[in-house]
């Protein structure tokens, strides 16, 4: 049970109360689950991660909270309608559109404190995971500064769910063994520092579609990324309008513009394997077996990649009908476009990639 005291509610928007809490504790203590006990218990506050939008990706704890008939749910604008439809009590949606985020944030605090003062179970519903680029930590400090200790329920973050739903593993043995998550926008619209290129790394960007052109350019010119590094944009992951746009650092901004990509979208940069949905499990495992065979037979004889590709294509035509194409090379993100629905991008030899597709 988390409560608010009358003293705390009177110091509603004083930044000093937040600063006091933030500077008076170690970072470990900031998020301790053992707050000091407030004096006048009234309502309680639960901060809930809603996941990327599909109600099936809510945690059981999240579902319990939002379907509490007594709850006042204060939701972020990007939470999907399907999830809001599960709310049994009252729901209010914050209008956090660009340009009025601070005003909306203050409105959120007012709504929450109003509900708590009335003794309600206030559910602060946030997209994804509350503590991943969601101001969840800031809100906890703010509420704590007001004398309220929220219970926090984690959510499935778009950082990991969006790539997966778009068919992209963020790590893959032999291809990527590190994942970095970044935002496209820092505080007050600044551009965060870019992390240097590392071939074994996948970088996932959120809140970055509006900056995609600048970001791609900077990744090449300032962070050492090869221009043909594969990039995918997963838009509306887990929602009915989900789609994935693929390209590389040179062409992805044009493609995004042409396809009119909009937030919420997550951008995945790196060499991780990309499996298209249309490839069956049997096709995927055959592709690996045939390719291993092709490399064994041809590399020992000193044959070039084109011969290996021809071997793989012939093997696939034989097993799955004619019409397959294959290229083998060091990197060719440019070939991976969203127009191709049936393909597999993979490797059986470190650093050498195989793109197998049916046009
Ligand atoms: C303010 S951040 C919040 C991230 C959230 N806390 C999380 O853990 O997923 C919002 C960004 O998350 C990403 N995002 C959230 N939901 C998404 C979805 N359904 N599909 C793709 N990206 C999504 C987008 O990059 C969006 O701009």
From TrEMBL:
<dbReference type="InterPro" id="IPR014777">
    <property type="entry name" value="4pyrrole_Mease_sub1"/>
</dbReference>
<dbReference type="Pfam" id="PF01221">
    <property type="entry name" value="Dynein_light"/>
</dbReference>
<dbReference type="InterPro" id="IPR006366">
    <property type="entry name" value="CobA/CysG_C"/>
</dbReference>
<dbReference type="GO" id="GO:0009086">
    <property type="term" value="P:methionine biosynthetic process"/>
</dbReference>
<dbReference type="InterPro" id="IPR035996">
    <property type="entry name" value="4pyrrol_Methylase_sf"/>
</dbReference>
<keyword id="KW-0808">Transferase</keyword>
<dbReference type="InterPro" id="IPR014776">
    <property type="entry name" value="4pyrrole_Mease_sub2"/>
</dbReference>
<dbReference type="InterPro" id="IPR001372">
    <property type="entry name" value="Dynein_light_chain_typ-1/2"/>
</dbReference>
<comment type="similarity">
    <text>Belongs to the precorrin methyltransferase family.</text>
</comment>
<dbReference type="GO" id="GO:0004851">
    <property type="term" value="F:uroporphyrin-III C-methyltransferase activity"/>
</dbReference>
<dbReference type="InterPro" id="IPR050161">
    <property type="entry name" value="Siro_Cobalamin_biosynth"/>
</dbReference>
<dbReference type="GO" id="GO:0019354">
    <property type="term" value="P:siroheme biosynthetic process"/>
</dbReference>
<comment type="function">
    <text>Siroheme synthase involved in methionine biosynthesis.</text>
</comment>
<protein>
    <recommendedName>
        <fullName>uroporphyrinogen-III C-methyltransferase</fullName>
        <ecNumber>2.1.1.107</ecNumber>
    </recommendedName>
</protein>
<keyword id="KW-0486">Methionine biosynthesis</keyword>
<keyword id="KW-0949">S-adenosyl-L-methionine</keyword>
<keyword id="KW-0028">Amino-acid biosynthesis</keyword>
<keyword id="KW-0489">Methyltransferase</keyword>
<dbReference type="InterPro" id="IPR037177">
    <property type="entry name" value="DLC_sf"/>
</dbReference>
<dbReference type="InterPro" id="IPR003043">
    <property type="entry name" value="Uropor_MeTrfase_CS"/>
</dbReference>
<dbReference type="GO" id="GO:0007017">
    <property type="term" value="P:microtubule-based process"/>
</dbReference>
<dbReference type="GO" id="GO:0032259">
    <property type="term" value="P:methylation"/>
</dbReference>
<dbReference type="GO" id="GO:0030286">
    <property type="term" value="C:dynein complex"/>
</dbReference>
<dbReference type="Pfam" id="PF00590">
    <property type="entry name" value="TP_methylase"/>
</dbReference>
<dbReference type="InterPro" id="IPR000878">
    <property type="entry name" value="4pyrrol_Mease"/>
</dbReference>
<feature type="domain" description="Tetrapyrrole methylase">
    <location>
        <begin position="44"/>
        <end position="252"/>
    </location>
</feature>
């Amino acid at each position: 049970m988390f409560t608010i005291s009358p003293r705390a509610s009177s110091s509603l928007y004083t930044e000093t109360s937040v600063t006091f809490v933030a500077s008076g504790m170690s970072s470990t203590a900031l998020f301790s689950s053992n707050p000091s006990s407030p004096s006048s218990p009234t309502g309680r506050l639960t901060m809930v991660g809603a996941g990327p939008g599909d109600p099936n990706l809510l945690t059981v704890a999240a579902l319990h909270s939002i379907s509490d008939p007594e709850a006042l749910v204060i939701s972020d604008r990007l939470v999907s309608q399907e999830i809001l439809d599960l709310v049994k009590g009252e729901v209010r949606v914050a209008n956090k559109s660009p340009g009025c985020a601070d005003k909306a944030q203050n409105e959120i605090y007012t709504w929450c404190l109003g509900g708590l003062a009335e003794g309600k179970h206030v559910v602060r519903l946030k997209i994804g995971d509350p503590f991943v680029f969601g101001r969840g930590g800031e809100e906890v400090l703010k509420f704590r500064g007001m004398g309220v200790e929220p219970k926090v329920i984690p959510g499935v973050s778009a950082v990991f769910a969006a790539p997966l739903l778009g068919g992209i593993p963020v790590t893959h043995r032999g291809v990527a063994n590190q994942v970095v998550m970044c935002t496209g926008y820092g505080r007050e619209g600044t551009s965060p520092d870019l992390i240097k290129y590392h071939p074994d790394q996948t970088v996932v960007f959120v809140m970055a579609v509006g900056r995609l052109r600048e970001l791609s350019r900077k990744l090449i010119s300032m962070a050492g990324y090869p221009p043909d590094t594969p990039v995918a944009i997963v838009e509306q992951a887990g929602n009915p309008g989900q789609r994935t746009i693929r390209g590389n650092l040179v062409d992805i901004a044009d493609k995004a513009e042409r396809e009119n990509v909009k937030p919420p979208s997550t951008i995945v940069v790196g060499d991780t394997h990309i499996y298209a949905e249309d490839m069956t499990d049997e096709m995927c495992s055959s592709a690996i077996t045939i390719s291993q065979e092709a490399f064994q037979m041809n590399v020992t004889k000193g044959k070039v990649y084109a011969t290996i590709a021809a071997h793989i294509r012939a093997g696939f035509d034989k097993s799955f009908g004619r019409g397959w194409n294959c290229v083998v090379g060091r990197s060719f993100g440019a070939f991976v476009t969203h127009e191709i629905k049936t393909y597999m991008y993979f490797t059986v030899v470190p650093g050498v990639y195989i793109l197998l597709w049916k046009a």
